[in-house]
Amino acid sequence: MAGSPAFEAACSALERSTKLDRWAARGTLQLSLMDAGLETGSVSAAQLRVVIGAVLPRQLKSAGVGDTGAVCTQLEQALANVDERGTAEGADAVFSRLGR
Amino acid sequence: MTPAGWPARPFGPVKRKPIEQVIHCRRWSTGVNEWPVAADSVSANRSLGALHLAELSLVCLALYAVTSLVVGTRLIARSWRSRGMPEFLIGCTYAVASGSGYPLSVVAPYLSGRSATLVAMIVAQVLIVLGCSAFAFFNAKVFRPGASWSVPVAALGSLVFAGSGLGVIAAFLSAPEGALAAESARTATAVFLFALVACQAWTALEGLRHYRMMKRRLALGLADAVVTNRFLLWGISGAISVTWNGVVISALLAGANVSASPVPVFAVSFGGLLSAVCLVLTFMPPAAYVRWLEREHSARALAAV
Hints:
The complex is a heterodimer of chains A (100) and B (305). Chain A has 100 residues and is mainly alpha-helical. Chain A contains 6 helices and no strands. In chain A, helix 1 (5-17) crosses helix 2, helix 1 runs antiparallel to helix 5 and helix 3 runs antiparallel to helix 5 (68-80). The chains are: A mainly alpha (100), B mainly alpha (305). At the A-B interface, helix 3 and helix 6 of A face helix 1, helix 2, helix 6 and helix 7 of B.
């Protein structure tokens, strides 16, 4: 299943800024998203920023990445220019509307 | 002077039931060595119990139908304003199937005239099939929007609903006057309920899976406590519906009269009551309930600091 534009942008940035290959980069980010209770298909740039700040450094360390701070900064920069049009609406957005 | 033991008030008409209407009136009319009275009173007690159960069931189902109609109409009205497909689909499910079609199918056999009953049954089945199909597509669109299998599975479920709905109508058309739909079309009703249970199991699993995910988001400040609770209620309501319809399927397959046997009637009544509560708390939560959830979340967050 294809990821959201924000997820794909973060994967590409992680691949560029570390020695991780494409699948390792995707896997590391996917594990971080799972820890945060998010899905690759509907994650937004704003949600990914929180994950990069709170969950990703731990995952990067366990993947053997050295300078996690610099990698996270590069990922956040990559998310700044993401066009999020066409991202599937998450179930949480639907359920927050339904009960209002 | 009033004689001792004489009542101190004038005699009036006795206000009590005629003796024929008293359930155990025949108790004293049989011979000393006969014992038909016991069997008679047991059957009378049973029929009285069944009557109470039927009344209870009717009240619970009426409550569920009215709640569904209100919630569904509200969601459809919201979908006109927001142009949101999920609101429309789930609104149709509640307003069309649970709020209109289901009650109509219950009252249809009691309408006067065979043609009125048949028209009501056909309309009810069409509404139920439409509503249940909308439910399947709601699951697909909301919980699995990017999955290639979800819409085909919902379409297949809708085909099963339509096919078994036609089977129910056909069986009812050929059934003798006064027959109940579920009794005259056991196989078609069971197939329909199997598909419905599958949809509701999907709902329960997705609701509980999302609840687990939302709890993780909540810890990171990415989710709202009220919306998180909404997923829990959604999952619970799916599980309740699976249980209640599962009991009805078992009773149908066992050859029991689902409208009179205590177990399915109790399952449907209690399930309907719990589902109505879940519906209100999910889609029209009272302000006090929302405040309580927020207070609980704040207290938990403070305790974690």
